[in-house]
């Protein structure tokens, strides 16, 4: 498609053109300004400023899930995890606040909730996750009433869950349910349980954290988490595996076998690629995830569309993490720049690092390296692993990791 035709299609939407003043080579549209989309938008502009990049995000700003568990404990603030998009604007990215309601891959355009259309040469889709509410009976109604929260997308529910924990009387029970893997951030629920237990230990020592996990055991850094819980939170934190929550009712959750009462109910329902991926026919697997070519992140279902982050069908050993989404974005950005310059994309080696706090001052880590094996990305033998023990230096690294990835993705 020629530039003239793009501009015609852009129609109702006013796009001033990007900062260089030079004629643009093509327009890349990015849906979603989270870890994947923001990073892709930045890196495409950085690696080829002659490409116009339009980032479409429905929220006013970026709120980080990493560190949001610390907000629940009172060890961080919403201000610390909330960031704007001015850094991307300074790089010449056009940030449009809108909700993409449809993708027309044949016409290479996306439709906006506000009514307009924007044309693209390549499209990047990084919508994160949406929840399969039907898997937990009564969840949606209870969530709307504010009696059960997931807080698995950082934002208003993070604030609401913190308020519920603060309001809970000493001696109360906080119930956290974990869905079957795969889900966003494998160690995230266990970090959350640790943070709430740390808060209770300090502020309401007669209270309990009960983790109901649909998986048989802790799914990530299990030995390290369990050692921390035994040493730091005996009598406060209880873990139950094989306990899938299938329903919620007033003041209680239902597993397949039991009804369990709690004062604060935090249920994380199973999830899948974000709604727009489903509507655009990008989902290929189990009605949940989007399979991609790991050399370019191009969808295996829809040509010209690159899918990033949690929405993808994860390759072997690859978690759904901000660290991974940020790396996916760099694969896609490099591939798109090569493609739009008439060159063949080259496979890229990527890394993942996930830190988890187990107390205010101590953290643990898991990392892995993934390389192209001729077919997919696979973990490099002998690379990565977990920390030897929880420690204060790991907590310092964890904070530095968070600040670095926010800066790398957004400025
Ligand atoms: C409690 C918790 C702790 C975590 N801790 C860590 C950690 O320590 N380290 C780590 O690496 N990862 C962590 N994660 C995981 C990390 O947050 C996700 O893996 C990451 O956000 C995925 O990036 P993404 O780009 O796929 O999705 P997101 O970051 O969720 O971004 C998706 C964006 O797309 C937007 N969007 C969706 N649909 C549309 C549409 N139709 N139109 C416009 N905009 C749209 C959304 O508003 C959102 O801003 C944690 C997650 C949780 C829940």
Plain-language structure description:
It is a single chain. The protein is of the alpha/beta class. The protein has 2 domains: 219 residues, FAD/NAD(P)-binding domain (3-Layer(bba) Sandwich); 137 residues, FAD/NAD(P)-binding domain. It is 30% helix and 26% strand. Strands 5-2-1-9-22 form a 5-stranded parallel sheet, with helices on one face. Strands 11-18-12-13-14 form a 5-stranded parallel sheet. Strands 23, 24, 25 and 26 form a 4-stranded antiparallel sheet that branches. The protein is globular and about 65 Å long. The N terminus is likely disordered. Bound molecules: flavin-adenine dinucleotide (FAD). The site of flavin-adenine dinucleotide has 37 residues, from helix 2, strand 2, helix 3, helix 8 and helix 11.
Short account of what is shown:
The chain is of the alpha/beta class. The chain contains twelve helices and 26 strands. It folds into two domains: 3-130 and 272-347 and 396-410, FAD/NAD(P)-binding domain; 133-269, 3-Layer(bba) Sandwich (FAD/NAD(P)-binding domain), CATH 3.50.50.
How many domains, as an integer? 2
Which spans have pLDDT < 50 for at least 5 consecutive residues? 1-21
- The first-level CATH class of the largest domain is given as Alpha Beta
Global geometry: globular
Give a quick set of tags describing it.
FAD/NAD(P)-binding domain, 12 helices, five-stranded parallel beta sheet, disordered N terminus, 2 domains, single chain, alpha/beta, globular, binds flavin-adenine dinucleotide, 411 residues
